[in-house]
Amino acid sequence: MRVFGKYWRCFQMGMQNAIEYRADFLIGLVSGSFAVLLQVFLWTAMFESGDRQTLYGYSYQQMIAYVIIAGIVSRLVATGFEYEVAGDIKSGGLSKFIVQPIHYLYFRMFCFFGSKAPQSLFIFIVAIATVLLVDGSLHAEELLRRLAFFVPAMLLALALNFFIFYCVSILAFWLTEAWAAFIGLNLLINICSGGVFPLDVFGATFMKIVSFSPFPYTIFFPINILNGKISADAMLQGCMLQLLWIVVLMGCSGLWWKQGMKKYIAVGG
Amino acid sequence: MAIIVKDLNKQYHYYKKQAGLAQSVKNLFHREKLVKEAVRNISFSIDEGEIVGFLGPNGAGKTTTLKMLSGILFPTGGSASVLGFTPWERKKEFKKRFAIVLGQKSQLWPDLPAYESFQLNKAIYEVDDRTFSATLDELVELLDVKELLHVQARRLSLGERMKMELIASLIHRPRILFLDEPTIGLDVISQKKIREFIRKYNERFKITVLLTSHYMKDIEELCRRTIVINEGQVMFDGDLNRIKTSFADIKRLKVQFAEEVDVERLRSFGKVTEWDGVHATIETNHQDVPAVSQQLLNRFPVLDFAVEEQPIDEAVAKLFAKGG
Amino acid sequence: MGQLVAGIRYHMKIWALFAKYSLMSQMEYRSNFLLTLAVESCFLLSKLIYAAVVYKTGIQLGGLSPDAMFLYIGVFILITAFYTGLFMNNFYRLPDYVREGTLDLLITKPVSTLFMVSTRHVDFAIPVPNMIAGGIIIAIGWRRLSIPFDFVHVAGFAGLLLCGVFLAYSLYLFPQILTFWTVRTSAVVEFADKAWDFNTMPMAIYRRWMQRIGTSLFPIFLIFNVPAMFLWNQLTWKMALWSIAAPLLFMGLVRIFWNVSIKRYSSAGG
């Protein structure tokens, strides 16, 4: 219980921080909505000019719902602690954690979850409202069935994205200019996760390749649960894969971190 | 007259800051406006070719006055004429005739040799090739920096960089030079070299110099005339020697002993301002320094020994606390 | 007239020195230079994806053939290259100049302070990928639409491109000047920056009323769409004249705003 109390403090710290910087979150949300707006107009124009029922396998309603929810889910799973990790590595702040009885990974993880807690509720409401607005014919039973999977899938997605970017942040042990890697990877991972366009848009081959990576399970998969594009079996299977990836990445990050620490201690960080 | 200043005033407004959420919400609607009078009715005039020192503690209004005279700041009231121009009209002809060096700010490009920054000023001030190379040669020779011209500015020492700042500001042969703390943070030898340069340059080109400094030595060696300014007002204007005896002669002896010494025994050498057993600071008159040092060294197990000036802020503050 | 030519030559000479010095400085940090190149390529890629997605459907977007889309996207990328290379970093530095007092030194120089502030740093890494990609995409569109490659078309296109760059300069300077009035400008700056990306696609995808606002009051569409419209014969005379007048008008406005703000800076100050 004592152990848990320690990390509960980290969670609270993250939450307080998020509340303190709520203005930044809102500004980010508004400026992020510009890209979503562009997409809404783009798809509207394409459906109007093209005179087709579906594009890339999506109906107009599904596509609009997808891009709106992708915008906010991207924001929800977005990290940012990479820079803090890199800072800790560069400035020697890690040494503090070597002597303290607190595990760096858990410290970061609970901080991250804490910071996401206040936003989550808000984003869940917006996501559900979007689905309802776009698809008026959706009845309550169906919505509840989708939510039953969406909520756990979203939480798993959050954890999964944490581990993906935790692995990315470990790069800072070896790269002195880690910022560039962070920005570049952030962009590419967001695209591969379906944060900009649904992944089907890039073609079957691309789909096949990324489906062997953890990325689709952070954004593309949960949205399509809510969007009603996935069967119940596939939902279950997807959630299992999310879990699997979390375990794999957790193991990898642990090993990788140890390698990094060896270097950190060797140079006398 | 190179500079004529009459009843110059500068006030700024700022807002009272209060802590707490309730206060910051309140501040949205109503903020308490406060006024600071940085410069109050200053008047003086300076002849061409003079070097005048501007002396005073931090926040006395020295830099603010300098910034008004160079047109960076607008005054709240009063007038000034610099070479016949009103500085804050920012006429191009005016800007080409003066230069300002701010000791804390650099106009050099840090990653480039200083020579490139001179080239840039050459283009900006429209200096022709022949004048440029003649001026540069002269300045380089006076400052003895020939081999530093092609070294990146950020690799130069503080003193070397200040020399380059001076060259950069003088490359267009200004008639007036404003120097704000030109020797701040420099080692003693660099300070001396900068002072020598300013004096020589003034003698050779009859340039008018107005300089502010924290260091008594700068003012003492360079300026026959000093304007002491405190709390935005001129307290004294004239030859510093007239008031010098009252403060400038005091020196500080900082001594470290090998073993604990009795403070009472030290008191006979002067005023002991700091003492912790093995370290002591003793204030004494300038002319007594040799004798006092000698005796200290003879009678005590001295490990380390330094003679320092009394900082100008304290000196001026003392002067006006006494004089009223 | 002679005075004007001399003035332009004077400023161009200084600008060329700025460019030379910026390049020299950036070469001091080569790994940074290369990383910036790499990151910028990622951004470029994320923009090109939009084009690819539309192109693959073969849909005539708002009456534009997929080939005509090339022209619009190419112009967007090319103007982005010019803006980011010549001005963006200068604009971002303005709050620092104010906070750190660098502005004081710039004010005392016998050149327009606005000119100094907005041209001092030329970035060579950021625009490279955009310059190359934009050039290639425009060339492809030009060929596929069989637009004649003659003086009228090239000069008209280049002229309107230049107008676009100047309009971008004038518009995007506004939010940074706010730094003279309030400490927190980051929100406005971020909104303005994100609004830039509305032009990833031709303005034809937006509603008519949005197009009207975006070409008049807040002319962010005007910056990018005009050169391509000219080549594609969609430019009306009215629009052509406006796209030449707008940069002048907004340049005038931003200069007034600048002068008022710098006056405020000098009146407050300390």
Helix content of chain C: over 70%
Shape of chain B: globular
Shape of chain C: globular
Q: Unreliable stretches of chain C, pLDDT < 50, 5 or more residues?
A: none
**Count of extended strands of chain C:** 0
Secondary-structure blueprint of this entry?
The complex is a heterotrimer of chains A (269), B (324) and C (270).
Chain A: H1 2-20, H2 22-50, E1 54-55, E2 58-59, H3 60-77, H4 81-91, H5 95-99, H6 104-134, H7 140-170, H8 178-192, H9 204-210, H10 220-226, H11 232-266
Antiparallel strand pairs in A: 1-2
Chain B: E1 3-15, H1 21-29, E2 33-46, E3 51-55, H2 62-69, E4 77-82, H3 92-95, E5 98-102, H4 114-124, H5 129-143, H6 158-170, E6 176-180, H7 188-205, E7 208-212, H8 216-222, E8 225-230, E9 233-238, H9 241-247, E10 250-257, H10 263-266, E11 271-275, E12 279-285, H11 289-299, E13 302-309, H12 312-323
Parallel strand pairs in B: 3-7, 3-8, 5-6, 6-7
Antiparallel strand pairs in B: 1-2, 1-4, 8-9, 10-12, 10-13, 11-12
Helix pairs in contact in B: 4-6
Chain C: H1 2-27, H2 30-57, H3 66-100, H4 102-107, H5 113-119, H6 127-144, H7 151-177, H8 186-196, H9 208-215, H10 220-231, H11 237-267
Helix pairs in contact in C: 2-3, 2-6, 3-6, 3-7, 3-10, 7-10, 7-11
Which features does this protein show?
heterotrimer, B: 324 residues, alpha/beta, Rossmann fold, 12 helices, C: mainly alpha, 11 helices, 0% strand, globular
What does this protein structure show overall?
The complex is a heterotrimer of chains A (269), B (324) and C (270). Chain A is built from 11 helices and 2 strands. Chain A has helices at residues 2-20, 22-50, 60-77, 81-91, 95-99, 104-134, 140-170, 178-192, 204-210, 220-226, 232-266, and strands at residues 54-55, 58-59. In chain A, helix 3 packs antiparallel against helix 6, helix 6 (104-134) packs antiparallel against helix 7 (140-170) and helix 7 (140-170) runs parallel beside helix 11. By secondary structure, chain B is α/β, with parallel strands linked by helices. Chain B has 2 domains: 3-9 and 44-245, Rossmann fold (3-Layer(aba) Sandwich); 246-323, Alpha-Beta Plaits (2-Layer Sandwich). In chain B, strand 6, helix 7 (188-205) and strand 7 form a beta-alpha-beta unit. In chain B, helix 4 runs parallel beside helix 6 (158-170). With 270 residues, chain C is an all-alpha fold. In chain C, helix 3 packs antiparallel against helix 10 (220-231). Chain C is globular. The termini of chain C are far apart. In chain C, 39% of the residues are buried.
